[in-house]
Specification:
heterotetramer, A mainly alpha (about 625), B mainly alpha (about 180), C mainly alpha (about 500), D mainly alpha (about 100), A: about 625 residues, mainly alpha, 26 helices, about 75% helix, C: about 500 residues, 20 helices, about 5% strand, globular
Chain lengths: ~625, ~180, ~500, ~100
């Protein structure tokens, strides 16, 4: 089955080509069929590959030589090992469901074909990233998904906000990509090759502590760009301008997890660089807590989920930072399911309420959208880490490993878990419980999502629940599955402490839910006056710590001023001025000489005499 | 070529007169006085030529320069005359000052060169002063002029012809302009 | 003569001249006839140059398809053509861009009625320009090279001077004098070289290959390189000498700008390698630190300037200054990867900058203005134009999978092996590049639909015919860059071994 | 040997006075006279040297100089007078139509 792995790439590519060139002619139905079947087939191949690679340490499948310039030799070939197979399966699976969901969601959009073209292109680029067997090919996928996220965020480009958000996303990603590119160059400078297998095999021998730290830090910069960690997370909340299925696919399940996958893929290097690992873990924990606080006060449902994604990614980086790569990947998988589910549910809410997403203006949707509510509740439970839901197992695994590594990180993780439970159930209660605050006609018009949207949500809901059991502490299929690749050191036998921690995190989750229930259902007035009492804190949070304004003032504006100075002042005046100055100088010299010829005979006589005197003088002195 | 005492005295006298004449030409207030100064200069030079055993040239100098050219100048002065008020001031600003300074430098250079002069540059010729005395200056001069230098002689005559024609043309031009 | 004895290169170089004469013979009125002849000639030249590329044996590093004939024996000047791995792909690139330029001039060119009707003289100068440019890339005798180098200026002077925009007189004059001044010293250097050859071998010669073996006492290579370098620095352009570029690009008519940006800038880079790296490696090494610093400044300076330009054509003009400065940095660093990147970037920059300028031409046609502020939401009425602009822009920004990326990345890898700080600074250019390109794209194509651009027509037959080949090349060269890298491989290895002996970098 | 030296000095002085006159004076006629003086200074040198070198060539030259001088004065004065006819001034500086 592995031999046909390249089909995984071919199908989305065909989908892109067909929809791009014939999209408008073949009508919406055909377009959706082409797009969804492409991803479906690709998903089947991915499943086959998933089975095929169980237990193998990775099979390389070269397709063709991409670049050969002196010793710089880059093949376009696939690396099929449990890690990439798992990622490929998750990517194709979730995107297949979202493709189906999009049929319903984007039904009336005039540029239907272009939407599915971009979506297929995204999956194609993501698979290149995941299946790459060398850094450069991963970089190609890396920027490819960046491009697709730019196109899809700015899909409704008539809206200036969407266009700006798209640009912002691409440029911030580019900043991260620069770090990644420099990392690749450093690797090539050190190893002379970019092949993962080669690099990992020769790494211990070649890399000194400084070099490995430099490489891993640069790679991590790339990861923070793509996976929206501090300091390069600012683009993700704005990315909600794009259609909701896009947010679900790209900004929750797949693209943003690329950073985590990259760190997991380079686990050999990260293991050799304890300092970087510490940096990764601390940034992960910090981002998790930081984003969770912002989600508390956010009013836009999709932005709440966006901050939640940043926070959960922080968890994953915390996991890989402390060396628990398998736990990170496990949480990545479960997160893909329940976060995609939450986004799709938010999508169906928007679909029902004609685009209204501000939770203050919703409320009481339980009666109107029972299915969406149920599904959203399952997702919320999984996210909050309610026992028996998938989130609980994967998050707990991370907290357990964090505890083993350093209690401080564990404490931060626990606190964030509590905040997570609060903000997600705040969103749930405010949106679905209590009386409705929506306008009258919107309320009547609200209707449940069509089948084509609800079925994917149901499937995801099921996955969100059972997803956790594949990672039970002892059963740990995931860890076992990834064992050959990640050789994760085995956790100490599940002693009493692990059970205690399990109980503690369960309590924390339920406590959070209770607090949310109390605040937003029992005494809805409390949050209002709370925000008044802690007004400065509240505004700080609601203005997102003024980070955007900070970047604008420190980075964007100065560069624009320098640019304006160069374009309007320096270039035309100084550099160009110098050139024109030279021209005028020639003119001035011309006039100067002109005055010598003033027509007066006696001045000529004088110049003759001057000549004579000089010549005589020369002969005398020689 | 040792100079006899008499010669030196005469030489100094005529030298001084020549210089005085020249100075009066440039310093005279009125053009007529400078013309007379020029006359004095020419006469002094004529005398010196004769001293230097170039009698014919001395006489020629007297006739051509002292006679013809000075008279011509006087004619011109008559036509233009000194009707104009006295010169507005001899020195015209920086030009004159620079000019005279340069002239002094020039003179210094020449003097220095002459002082440094050693030995005769070219080979000596055969015409010694006593040969001139014996054969007569005009005969010798006439012979060399018409034998060795016949071409320059003819060219000189052509030049003079051109001079005459030119002068006549200028005169005619003047008559026409007066008629309009 | 080369193996087949058939003077292929001479044919390629002088066919356009023949075409130019042919155009003159046709009547002034028969515009269609003139355009047909011009197109036919440029297409044949393209075919021949591709044949030359096919005939080229990638394994050998030296000069191939060489042609040699005495021209002025007494002075040792001979008519000598040849091509090596480095300049091989410049010929087809030039030929292609000239075909594109002819197609782009199908509708009348020029800003006033008089120039729009002067079709005959326009195509005459255009074909003459092609001969000049092809000659520069193929000439192997220094004097012949100089003749073509200067000959190319005259048609360019008329093309911009007569068919340009409002400030064309000023722009042409500045362009002409700037280039002329730059190359004046080059002539002196060429003669000096000839004299050194005479000194050591007893016979005047300007043949590039024999001059390469010349051993020159130390200061000579430095100042010789400096003189050559100045002419090329003006042409590329390198930082302080770039001010002629924005005016010339902006005032020239679209097809001429395409040639100016796509091909003429490559002559500077080609010169740096052919006469810098291969002729005076020590000279280049000594000047390398200065050139590198100027190149870095060029990248950041031009990118920042492009950010704040108000005229979209000036944005692209400054962007090509930035991209070419990176190429110069690649030449100066001179190792295997950076030189491969230089070869790749020369071709791909030619292609995507041509595409971008064509699009600017189309934008100007539709809205009669080039000021970015007056555009907005053009993607809705003209989706095809939007997609083409997007692909060309992404090629320019260096998106992996498109041609811009391969060249740029190889150069950065090469520079990184040399001086890491330079690579980091140059990589900043990547971010700035994305910023100003995307921002320009957004203000023109996206955002609320500007009232006046609502009626803008989408791309029609001729526009597509001109644009599609370029876009296809942008994608094909991005996915299969080895089409260009492999043939250039042998020459680059020879270059590197020579440069390595001299490389100034650790 | 010293006699010739003084003669040369004398002619140099005369020549310088003539040159100074040309530069200082503004009256065309006076300038013309100064030129004559300069010519005569040269003649003096010629004769002195011809005597010194005992060859008549020098004197022939003086002859030629005289011829030229005569022609020159004739035409020169003609010109000055015709200029005077045109513009009633003998001041050289006013006559500067051939300005560069």
């Amino acid at each position: 089955m592995l031999a046909y792995a390249w089909l995984m790439l071919l199908f989305p590519l065909l989908g892109v080509l067909i929809n791009a060139f014939f999209g408008r002619r073949i009508g919406k139905r055909a377009v959706s069929w082409v797009a969804c079947s492409a991803i479906g087939l690709s998903f089947l191949v991915a499943l086959g590959v998933l089975m095929g690679t169980a237990g193998s340490t990775g099979v390389e499948q070269p397709l063709f030589t991409w670049i050969s310039a002196g010793s710089f030799h880059v093949e376009f070939s696939l690396l099929l090992d449990p890690l990439s197979a798992l990622m490929a399966a998750v990517v194709t699976g979730v995107s297949f469901l979202i493709h189906i969901y999009s049929i319903g969601y984007m039904a009336e959009d005039p540029r239907y074909a272009r939407y599915f073209t971009y979506l297929n292109l995204f999956v194609f680029a993501m698979l290149i990233l995941v299946l790459a067997n060398n850094y450069l090919m991963m970089y190609v996928g890396w920027e490819g998904v960046g491009l697709c996220s730019y196109l899809l965020i700015g899909f409704w480009f008539e809206r200036k906000a969407a266009a700006d958000a798209g640009k912002k996303a691409f440029i911030v990603n580019r900043v991260g990509d620069m770090g990644f590119a420099l990392g690749i160059m450093l690797i090539f400078a050190m190893f002379g090759t970019l092949q993962f297998s080669e690099v990992f095999r020769r790494a211990p021998g070649i890399l000194g502590p400084a070099a490995v730290t430099a490489i891993t830090l640069l790679l991590f910069v790339g990861a923070t760009g793509k996976s929206a960690q501090i300091p390069l997370y600012i683009w993700l909340p704005d990315a909600m301008e794009g259609p909701t299925p896009v947010s679900a696919l790209i900004h929750a399940a797949t693209m943003v997890t690329a950073g985590v996958y990259m760190v997991a893929r380079n686990h050999v290097l990260f293991d050799m660089a304890p300092t970087t690992a510490a940096v990764v873990a601390s940034i992960g924990a910090a981002t998790a807590f930081f984003a969770a606080t912002m989600a508390l006060v956010e009013k836009d449902l999709k932005r709440i989920l966006a901050y939640s994604t940043i926070s959960q990614l922080g968890y994953m980086f915390l996991a890989v930072g402390v060396g628990a790569y398998a736990a990170g990947m496990f949480h990545l998988t479960t997160h893909a399911f329940f976060k995609a589910l939450l986004f799709l549910a938010a999508g169906s809410v928007m679909h029902a309420m004609a685009g209204e997403i501000n939770i203050q203006k919703l409320g009481g949707l339980r009666e109107k959208l029972p299915r969406t509510y149920a599904v959203f509740a399952v997702g919320a439970a999984a996210l909050a880490g309610v026992p028996l839901f998938s989130g609980f197992f994967s998050k707990d695994e991370i907290l357990w490993r964090a505890f083993l590594h350093s209690p401080v990180l564990w404490l931060v993780g626990l606190g964030t878990a509590f905040l997570t439970a609060v903000y997600i159930f705040r969103a749930l209660f405010v949106t679905f419980w209590g009386e409705t605050r929506a306008e009258k006609k919107l309320w009547e018009h609200a209707h449940e999502a069509p089948a084509v949207m609800s079925i994917p949500m149901l499937i995801l809901a099921v996955l969100a629940v059972i997803g956790g059991y594949i990672g039970l502490p002892r059963l740990s299929l995931v860890e076992g599955y990834l064992e050959p690749v990640l050789h994760a050191e085995h956790a100490a036998e599940a002693g009493a402490t692990e059970w205690v921690l399990l109980a503690v995190s369960a309590l924390i989750a339920l406590g959070g839910i209770a607090l949310a229930y109390y605040l937003y259902v029992v005494r809805p007035a409390v949050p209002a006056n709370l925000s008044k009492q802690f007004a400065p804190l509240y505004t700080l949070l609601s203005r997102k710590y003024y980070v955007d304004e900070f970047y604008m003032a420190v980075v964007v504006e100065p560069l624009r001023q320098v640019g304006r100075f160069i374009a309007e002042l320096f270039d035309p005046r100084v550099v160009d001025g110098a050139v024109n100055g030279l021209a005028r100088l020639a003119g001035v010299c011309g006039e100067g000489l002109g005055t010598l010829q003033n027509g007066r005979v006696r001045s000529y006589a004088l110049s003759i005499l001057v000549g004579v005197v000089i010549i005589l003088g020369y002969f005398l002195l020689r | 070529m040792t100079a006899t005492p008499l010669e030196t005295v005469l030489f100094i006298a005529f030298g001084a007169v020549a210089i005085a004449g020249a100075l009066s030409v440039i310093l005279a207030r009125h053009a007529v006085y400078s013309a007379l100064g020029m006359l004095v200069n020419f006469v002094a030079l004529a005398a010196m030529y004769i001293m230097l055993s170039a009698e014919f040239l001395g006489i020629a100098q007297l006739i051509v320069y002292a006679g013809a050219i000075v008279v011509l100048f006087l004619f011109a002065l008559m036509l233009i005359g000194g009707r104009r008020p006295a010169e507005q001031g001899r020195l015209t600003g920086g030009l004159a000052a620079a000019g005279s300074a340069l002239v002094v430098v020039f003179l210094a250079e020449i003097a220095y060169l002459v002082m440094r002069l050693t030995g005769t540059a070219g080979a000596k010729g055969t015409v010694t002063p006593d040969v001139i005395a014996q054969l007569g200056h005009i005969q010798l001069l006439g012979a060399t002029l018409l034998l060795e230098y016949i071409l320059p002689f003819e060219l000189a005559s052509v030049l003079l012809l051109v001079g005459i024609v030119g002068a006549v043309m200028l005169a005619r031009a003047r008559r026409q302009s007066r008629q309009e | 003569m080369n193996s087949t004895g058939f003077p292929l290169l001479s044919l390629i170089v002088f066919l356009p001249l023949l075409g130019a004469v042919l155009v003159l013979l046709l009547g002034r009125r028969s515009h269609a006839g003139i355009r047909a002849v011009a197109l036919a000639v440029t297409l044949i030249v393209l075919g021949l140059s591709l044949a030359a590329a096919a005939l080229f044996r990638p394994a050998e590093a030296g000069i191939q398809l060489a042609e040699q004939a005495p021209w002025i024996p007494s002075l040792g000047i001979s008519y000598r053509l040849g091509v090596d791995g480095f300049s091989l792909f410049l010929l087809p690139l030039t030929a292609l861009l000239f075909v594109i330029a002819v197609l782009a001039s199908w509708k009348p060119v020029g800003s006033d009625e008089a120039s729009r009707s002067a079709v005959q003289s326009y195509f005459f100068w255009l074909l003459l320009l092609e001969t000049g440019v092809l000659g520069v890339f193929a000439a192997l005798d220094l004097v012949l090279f100089y003749v073509f180098w200067e000959a190319m200026l005259i048609p360019m002077y008329f093309l911009i001077g007569r068919w340009g925009g409002e400030r064309r007189a000023y722009a042409t004059m500045k362009f002409f004098i700037y280039t002329m001044a730059g190359s004046a010293l080059m002539l002196v250097a060429i003669l000096a070289l000839g004299y050194f050859a005479y000194q050591s071998t007893g016979a005047w010669t300007f043949d590039w290959q024999t001059l390469r073996e010349l051993k020159l006492a130390w200061p000579a290579p430095l100042w010789l390189f400096a003189m050559f370098g100045l002419a090329f620095a003006v042409k590329v352009p390198v930082f302080p000498f770039h001010t002629w570029l924005p005016d010339a690009y902006v005032e020239a008519p679209t097809p001429v700008t395409v040639l100016l940006a796509g091909v003429l800038s490559k002559m500077g880079v080609y010169g740096f390698v052919r006469f810098g790296l291969q002729l005076f490696p020590e000279g280049l090494r000594a000047a390398a630190p200065w050139l590198a610093v100027l190149a870095i400044i060029g990248i950041l300076y031009a990118s920042l300037s492009a950010l704040m330009q108000k005229d979209v054509k000036r944005v692209i003009a400054y962007s090509s200054v930035a991209h070419l400065s990176l190429v110069v940095l690649g030449v100066v660093v001179a190792n295997a990867q950076s030189l491969a990147g230089v070869v790749m970037q020369m071709v791909s920059h030619g292609i995507y900058v041509a595409a971008l300028f064509l699009i600017v031409g189309m934008l100007e046609e539709r809205r009669g203005t080039r000021l970015i502020a007056e555009f907005g939401g053009l993607w809705k009425p003209a989706p095809l134009l939007g997609v083409c602009f997007l692909i060309a822009m992404l090629g320019a920004v260096g998106l992996p999978g498109l041609n811009g990326f391969v060249g740029e990345f190889l150069i950065l890898v090469g520079v990184f092996q040399g001086v890491r700080v330079y690579a980091v600074l140059a990589a900043l250019g990547m971010i700035l590049g994305a910023w100003y390109m995307l921002w320009t794209f957004q203000r023109i194509m996206q955002g609320p639909v500007e009232a006046r651009s609502a009626g803008a027509a989408d791309m029609r037959g001729m526009d597509l015919l001109v644009m599609v080949p370029l876009l296809v090349l942008i994608i094909v060269l991005g996915v299969f860059p080895n089409l260009i890298l492999v043939p250039a491989g042998a020459t680059i290895n020879a270059l590197v071994s020579q440069a390595a002996a001299v490389a100034w970098l650790p | 040997m010293d006699a010739i030296r003084y003669l040369l000095i004398l002619s140099a002085v005369l020549f310088s006075i003539g040159a100074a006159g040309v530069l200082i004076r503004r009256n065309a006629l006076v300038i013309f006279m100064c030129i004559e003086i300069m010519l005569n200074a040269v003649n003096l040198t010629f004769i002195a040297l011809s005597r010194q070198l005992q060859s008549l060539d020098g004197q022939i030259f003086v002859f030629m100089v005289m011829a030229v001088a005569a022609a020159e004065v004739a035409i020169g004065l003609g010109i000055i007078v015709s200029i005077f006819r045109h513009k009633p001034t003998t001041d050289v500086d006013d006559v500067s139509l051939l300005k560069g």
